[in-house]
Write a structure and sequence with these properties.
Layout: E1 2-8, E2 13-19, H1 21-24, E3 31-40, E4 49-56, E5 60-67, E6 73-82, E7 87-96
Parallel strand pairs: 1-7
Antiparallel strand pairs: 2-5, 3-6, 4-5, 6-7
InterPro entries: Gp77-like (IPR056928)
Pfam families: Gp77 (PF23148)
Length: 99
């Protein structure tokens, strides 16, 4: 599921948050592990958008993103595993535009 779509400039270094509390609180569950993988959807050879860090609490994640090539689109695929054994896969989409 695509959670959000963002526009960023190539030189920006920004953090993007994902809040899992609406999903996890009703089940009394918390995050155990989170992984992130970036692919360029417009040029398979482009690896210039980087997720340099993933910060996690029991209910939220912060993804630090930098780089990207002007005009390209990228998908950050997030896999979140919970203490209760649940697995969620979702995406953030980035369009890079140099203004």
């Amino acid at each position: 599921m695509i959670l959000a779509t963002y526009i960023k400039q190539p030189s920006e270094i920004k953090d993007y948050d994902v809040d899992y509390s609406p999903w996890l609180l009703p089940m009394d569950d918390t995050l155990d592990d989170v992984t992130a993988d970036v692919v360029c959807t417009t040029d398979a050879t482009d690896t210039s958008l980087v997720c340099s860090s993933v910060e996690r609490t029991t209910l939220r994640c912060k993804f630090w993103m930098s780089g990207g090539t002007n005009g390209n689109k990228y998908k950050l695929t997030i896999q979140a595993t919970t203490v209760g054994g649940r697995l969620d896969e979702s995406e953030l989409v980035f369009s890079v535009k140099d203004y």
